[in-house]
Amino acid sequence: MAAFPFTIAATDGKARTGLLATPRGEIRTPAFMPVGTAGTVKALTVEQVAQTGADILLGNTYHLMLRPTAERVARLGGLHRFMRWEKPILTDSGGFQVMSLSKISKVTEAAVTFQSHIDGSKHVLTPERSIEIQADLLGSDIVMQLDELVSLPTTEDRAADAMRRSARWGERSKAAFGERETQALFGIQQGGMSEALRRESAERLTETGFDGYAIGGLAVGEGHAGMVEVLDYAPGMLPADRPRYLMGVGKPIDIVEAVARGVDMFDCVLPTRSGRHGQAWTWEGSINLKNARFTDDEAPLDPISACPASRDYSKAYLHHLVKSEEILGQVLLSWHNLAFFQQLMAALRAAIGEGRLEAFRKDFHARQARP
User: CA 267, CA 322: separation in Å to the nearest integer?
Assistant: First the structure.
């Protein structure tokens, strides 16, 4: 019996819309999770994030275990209380940052040993320790198994080794997690660009049994076309009655294509990271507010948006803030971008519910100029 009920309200082709019910609130799917790396969605208050329509945030195990430490967060009442976010939180396992940020990381069957990117201190992350940090110390609602991530392109043998180790670590993560009524555990499919390895991974994860299933190992160098190629088959290998989460994705066009292929949940730093660098995402594609053509543009980013950042400030003012390197520019563009991503998810849910996803998808492609 899965920890959280998942109800699919409507389907349109492979796409689904529904609700994942957690004790801290319902998550409307398809869902986009803003990334709160170090206990904060960068440049925004939790009230601003909630106002955009976010049902759930993502927290980061690696960053929080190093600073302020997971034990300190636990002493201060857990991550929800610490950052004043009352809705659900999903935490990643820490594996991605261990591979990408640590000065030195060594992977064995037992654990990942690494040096902190902050002060060089040595740490050991096992599947069991990752579960302890996420479930017991941070107190997240959705916990991810520890997996081994491999950047693409890679060899079939390397992808196979990492996938099988991830499957074994999934079993250890499940044993450490045990049975919980108010928290869920997701397994992570790996296998690189190989359909056979993805199938083997899915079968092993399903045999172990998780509350939800993630598609990992994408958005790591394969490009949009390569990602879509894997998504043509990978989601369908995972249990249809549980949520499917595509990790670390992505651009709006990536999300639309993934939803059309049966994915339910997403996270990415893109909205806030690009906002901090002067980029705004809109229904007509992305625009760079640094460009001189916005110097005298009195129009807002979106006059009909419910988000004040999108509706109430002219592009000329945003251009001025960005060029002047004013902090408010980063705040407003991050806020706008998160609001746009949530509007996109709402539009996708409506299109699926009304059986017009293909028309929405074609129109979206026509209007978006890929940056």
Answer: 25
Q: Which residues contact 178 (CB under 8 A, 6 or more apart)?
A: none
Catalytically annotated residues: 92, 267
d(CA 198, CA 202): 6
What pLDDT digit, counting tens, does each position of 302-355 carry?
999 999 999 999 999 999 999 999 999 999 999 999 999 999 999 999 999 999
Q: Are 191 and 159 in contact (CB under 8 A)?
A: yes
Assess whether pLDDT exceeds 60 at residue 371.
Answer: no
Contacts of 97 (CB under 8 A, 6+ apart): 60, 62, 63
Going from the C-alpha of 173 to that of each of 78, 110, 125, 213, the distances in angstroms are 21, 12, 12, 14
Distance CA 104, CA 62 (A): 14
Q: Which helix (H) or strand (E) covers residue 18, if one does?
A: strand 15-22
User: What DSSP letter does each residue of 284-303 carry, written as one string?
Assistant: TEEEETTSGGGTT---BS-T
The whole-angstrom separation of Cα 312 and Cα 323 is 19
Regarding beta strands 142-144 and 285-288, do their DSSP bridges make them parallel or antiparallel, or are they unpaired? unpaired
Cα separation of 114 and 116, whole Å?
7
Neighbours of 132 (CB within 10 A): 15
What the block records as the tokens of 120 is: 């060089």
Tokens standing for residue 231: 């998504």
Residue 325 makes CB contacts below 8 A (sequence gap 6+) with: none
- 370 band by pLDDT with thresholds 50, 70 and 90: low
Paired with 36 in beta bridges are 59
DSSP 224: H
CB atoms closer than 10 angstroms to residue 316 = 15
The per-residue pLDDT for range 220-260, each reduced to its tens digit, is 888 899 999 999 999 999 999 999 999 999 999 999 999 99
Look at residue 291 and tell me whether its pLDDT is greater than 90.
yes
Q: Can you give the pLDDT at residue 153?
A: 86
Mean pLDDT lowest among 68-82, 89-103, 180-194? 89-103
pTM: 0.96
Q: Per 3-state DSSP, what percentage of the chain is helix, strand, and coil (rounded to 5)?
A: 45, 20, 35
